[in-house]
Predict the 3D structure of the following.
Amino acid sequence: MHDGHDDEHMGDGLVVRKRRKGIYILPNLFTLAALFGGFYAVVMAMNGRFDMAAIGVFCAMVLDSLDGRVARMTNTQSAFGEQMDSLSDMVSFGAAPALIAYEWALKGLGRWGWIAAFVYCACAALRLARFNVNTAVVDKRFFQGLPSPAAAALATGFIWIMTEYGVKPYDVAWVMFAVALYSGLTMVTNVPFYSFKDISMKKSVPFAVIVLIALGIAVINIDPPVVLFAVFVVYGLSGYVLYFWRKARGQRASVISTSTDEPEESGLHR
């Protein structure tokens, strides 16, 4: 009776058990759930529920931040998981925000609208592809360009907050155009954005940190669209602040954020 391992008989009566190659369920469940969040967001946008579409993207973002950490903590990293994560990110943070933004306001701008949506979508693809092939390490604490989940949060967060306050899409169509271009093009720049990769979930932390996390959750609950959008606006601008600050000090401003450790912590990249 087999228990998921192959037995290989060696000399002297020794039996060496080899683990069968397969697909790890746990991290890929998070990746599939994130993919569903992006798919759900597109379906909601097609049905005119743009607030629910934005929530779908934000849920995908949370799930995407977990799959890589879960894989690393349970030692279930795999090349399959990395590829699956990349494809999921392209749907949830590339195609979905572009389609939602187009359906919400950009289609009212005619040719300019679909150009902005395509530029965002193309930049997300370029961002993900560049991350996957980069191998040089300058500073692992920083991403090269705006991560695609943060770019998606800027685009859909703007739609969410406008929907919550009853602002008509055609009144802010050109603002949506600018947000889509900014978030898209910032993904493919060399501007450094803090990656939070030096924060370890396994280390003990002071009690005050837990209190601050609880306070952060409480603040978000006051008005989720406003608070979350404000957080990502600050993050989306922080890279340029850091870039020009480094330039002013004569330091190297461009960074490459990919680790040579294989497999990479896929859940928090991009």
About this structure: Helices lie at 25-46, 50-73, 79-104, 111-133, 148-164, 173-187, 207-222, 224-248. The first strand starts at residue 5 and ends at 9.
